[in-house]
Structures are given as C-alpha cells and as structure tokens.
Amino acid sequence: MKTNFINRLLIFIFLLTIGNQLTAQDIIVKKDGSELQTKVIEISLNTIKYRLFNQQNGPIRNIEKKAVFMIIYENGTRETINTSIDKNPLSQKSNDNSDKNTKAARRRGTIIRLGHHSGEYTNYKSLVVGYQVGGKKLATAFLLGIHTYDGMTGIPVLGEFKYHFTENTNSFFAYAELGGVVLIEGSSEESVLYGLGLGRIFSIGSKTELFISSGFNIESVTYEDYFGETNTESYDFFNIKLGIKF
C-alpha cells in the first residue's frame, strides 16, 4: 500500500510538472492566423524577441510587430499589437515638425475686423482688413481700413502685435497696436494711434477663427488752429472689436 501511494504521488507530481510546462508558454498569434509557441523575451519598437518554447536554450529569434496580431501570455493575459502609430524616433521627429508647421500656419490668414471706440468727447467706428503672420504664440498683422468720426472719415494704417497665452487654437491673447490715421474728409488732421488690449479666439473651422477683444487706444492728433499754429492733443478711447481670420 505504501509503495502504491508513493508511485501515485510521483505520477501526480510528474503530470503536474508537465501540465505547468505545457501552459507556461506565450502564444504569438500572427496576422495570417498561424501561432508560435514561445517564451517572449522582449518587445521593442518594431520587433518582438522570443525563443521557441521547445527550444528554451535555443537562439533568440525576431519577428516584426507588423506581422503579429496578438500575444497570449502564460497567465492568460492577451495583448493586441497595434502598429498603426509609428513610434520610430525619426518618424516622430518628422511628425513633430509637421505639427509645428500646422501650429505656425494657424496664425496666418486674412483678417477682417469691426470696432467701436468710445471716448470722452467723441465716438467712432472702424473697419480694417489685413494679413497676419506668426508662429505658435507670436503673431504680427498689417491692417488698413477706414474710421468714421462725427462728420469725418479717416484711413488708418496699423501694425498689430499679438501674444497668444497658449498654443491651442482657442486661446486668450494680448495685443499692442501702433499706427497712424489720415483724415480725408471733414478735416486736415493727422493722428498717431497706439493701444493695448486683451482678446479671445474661437475656432470655427480648420482655418477659420472668430475673435473678440477689448482695450484702450490713444490718438495723438496734430492740427492747425485758426491762427495757423500747429497743435497736438491726445484723446483716450475704450474699444470693443470683433473680427474673423480665415
């Protein structure tokens, strides 16, 4: 009886060992449906290194990840191999450069902007058009348009500089502008204009943005009085502007 028990115990241990060995393997399922019984050694960017299960001390083999659908590990865990995203450093660098170009191009475009300017002594409206260039955060625009005062019309020529607080399409920004206005109707006055303000961009398409801003500007006006003398006066205006870039 004792001998039979020992024999059965040895057979049980043997079967248990064989069973563990049979299940302690990693199965590589290829995209063509075939399977490899392996022990996976390493998964790199583009390849999987393994040994055949029946050659545990054999050579390390390689298989390209693009040929593999799934790995079923010895503990039953399944890992699907996704090669749709290229993680090659050179390709990633190329993609990064492409992203940078996309962000830089986002700051480029034609601008059309309406404005209402309120001052202590007078109000005026503005319509300007121009073109903007820039990078991820900084942008510069050249603007030309028309100002309508009380009975007077002027042509503004402006340079505008923007700083975007983030690189995102929807971003807050600060701006500074500098330029001049020539009155062509109702007066012979000329003025220098400069201003500061804050705004917000709202993306409505891949290349189209709406923006709204508010700030103040100062116009330094030069004119001749009744005695023919040249005088300069400054006027402060609060403004609200609404525009589109495309």
Quickly list its features.
Porin; SH3 type barrels; 246 residues; 2 domains; six-stranded antiparallel β-sheet; alpha+beta; rod-shaped
Please give a structural write-up:
By secondary structure, the protein is of the alpha+beta class. The chain folds into 2 domains: 19-83, SH3 type barrels (Roll); 107-245, Porin (Beta Barrel). It has 2 helices and 14 strands. The strands form 2 sheets. Strands 7-8-9-10-11-12-13-14 form an 8-stranded antiparallel β-barrel. The protein has a 6-stranded antiparallel beta sheet with strand order 4-3-2-1-5-6, with no helix packed on it. A hairpin with a 3-residue loop joins strand 8 (123-134) and strand 9 (138-148).
Q: Which CATH top level class of the largest domain fits?
A: Mainly Beta
Rounded to the nearest angstrom, the radius of gyration is 36 Å
- Overall, the morphology is rod-shaped
Supply the helix-strand structural class.
alpha+beta
Q: How many domain regions?
A: 2
Can you summarize the main beta sheet?
8 strands, antiparallel, barrel
Q: Name the poorly predicted regions.
A: 85-105
User: What's the helical proportion of residues?
Assistant: 10-25%
**Total helix count?**
2
Fill in the CATH topology of the largest domain.
Answer: Porin
Arrangement of strands in the largest sheet? 7-8-9-10-11-12-13-14
The whole-number mean of residue pLDDT values reads 79
What is the second-level CATH architecture of the largest domain?
Beta Barrel
In percent terms, what proportion of residues is strand? over 45%
H/E element order: HEEEEEEHEEEEEEEE
